[in-house]
């Protein structure tokens, strides 16, 4: 349920009083510190304080329909709420210790599973292709809407033309009647109304024409969909060529078995032990 | 006037079709094809098109190949290339292949109307 204007104003005036309250507090603080002559003014400010003390914003809010207290209380369990909503998947992974997570990440990198597994849906070219196709489909639907508007406008133009023709006939009839019977005021009055309606009908026609022009403009702008699709296709082509090149240049056709690689080598910027570290570690573990 | 509209983008085919309809040509009088292969088949089957409006970059058979294929059998039918290819080299290539006119996307409806009017009068 939405708030009425009165309710909004009531809420606003409550908020204004609160602002006055804050300003008054500021003023009184300054006054007490500085000028004794201003004590009277400070008292005045204190008087402003008094009505606002009685205003409780929660009371105002509770009196207004549709205002819900959205403060999260301790009783609310977010997991319970989420479990009740379709389509919410719990993809949060439990927190692991840093050592085990590093080793698992390395394992995932070795298995080509990091950052994303190389599945059809994760391949960049496939994703771009999907975007292009989806965009084409949606553009077609937008075009359906624009075509519908044009068709409807064509009907409006047709009906308006019929109405306009009828009013023109009536206007001519009323013109001849008012000329023959100038003393009958109703003919003149109806003639004026008829002329006014004719003008409205013409204005309606020009408004529909203007709307049609805007729809045609929108249709023209939709060419950018095709242009952007071709830009995506160009990126896809570059990625394919790059992929092919990288596969070629990094291809290992030596036939040698994969060697275990060193994790920390002298010259690395961190995690390198020096002689003292080694000595202290040996003494710590008492293997001398 | 019978018109063949060739473009792999359905949106573009509709945009072009819409302009053609604004020229007073009813929907029944133009055919659509999404690539050069389908267009060539329609061209052979009907063989009564007054104008061919074709895109350049399309799957299976591109617009340039379509133009060359049509020109091998029909030297007269007016062909307009409507494409995103805006390079001078591409325009020359298309003209050498046999297109009568060339429009770079995005284009205004007025431009297409002018070109079609010119072709129809010729």
Summed up:
Chain A has helices spanning 5-33, 39-54, 57-62, 78-83, 98-110, 124-180, 185-221, 223-249, 275-285. Chain A is mainly α. Mean pLDDT of chain A is 75; it is low at 1-5 and 24-52.
Feature tags:
heterodimer; A: 288 residues; mainly alpha; 70% helix; 0% strand; elongated; disordered N terminus; B: 122 residues; alpha/beta; Rossmann fold; 5-stranded parallel sheet; 5 helices; 5 strands; globular
SSE order and pairing:
The complex is a heterodimer of chains A (288) and B (122).
Chain A: H1 5-33, H2 39-54, H3 57-62, H4 78-83, H5 98-110, H6 124-180, H7 185-221, H8 223-249, H9 275-285
Helix pairs in contact in A: 1-2, 6-7, 6-8
Chain B: E1 3-6, H1 10-22, E2 30-33, H2 36-46, E3 51-54, H3 63-73, E4 79-83, H4 88-97, E5 101-104, H5 109-121
Parallel strand pairs in B: 1-2, 1-3, 3-4, 4-5
Helix pairs in contact in B: 2-3
| The CATH topology of chain B | Rossmann fold
What average pLDDT do the residues of chain B reach? 91
**Structural class of chain B, please?**
alpha/beta
Strand residue percentage of chain B: 15-25%
The CATH H-level homologous superfamily of chain B: Response regulator
The tally of beta strands of chain A, per DSSP, is 0
The run of helices and strands of chain B is: EHEHEHEHEH
The total of helices of chain A stands at: 9
Fraction of residues of chain B in helices?
Answer: 40-55%
Main β-sheet of chain B, in a few words? 5 strands, parallel
Spans of chain B of at least 5 consecutive residues whose pLDDT stays below 50 are none
Could you please describe the fold and organization of this structure?
- The complex is a heterodimer of chains A (288) and B (122).
- Chain A has helices at 5-33, 39-54, 57-62, 78-83, 98-110, 124-180, 185-221, 223-249, 275-285.
- Chain A has 288 residues and is mostly helical.
- Among the domains of chain A are: 5-62; 124-249.
- In chain A, helix 1 (5-33) packs antiparallel against helix 2 (39-54), helix 6 (124-180) packs antiparallel against helix 7 (185-221) and helix 6 (124-180) packs antiparallel against helix 8.
- Chain B is of the alpha/beta class and 122 residues long.
- The model of chain B has no long low-confidence stretch (mean pLDDT 91).
- Helix content of chain B is 48%, strand content 17%.
- Chain B has a single domain, classed as Response regulator (Rossmann fold, 3-Layer(aba) Sandwich), CATH 3.40.50.2300.
- In chain B, helix 2 packs parallel to helix 3.
- Chain B is globular and about 30 Å long.
- The relative contact order of chain B is 0.18.
- Classes of the chains: A mainly alpha (288), B alpha/beta (122).
- Chains A and B meet through helix 6, helix 7 and helix 8 of A and helix 1 of B.
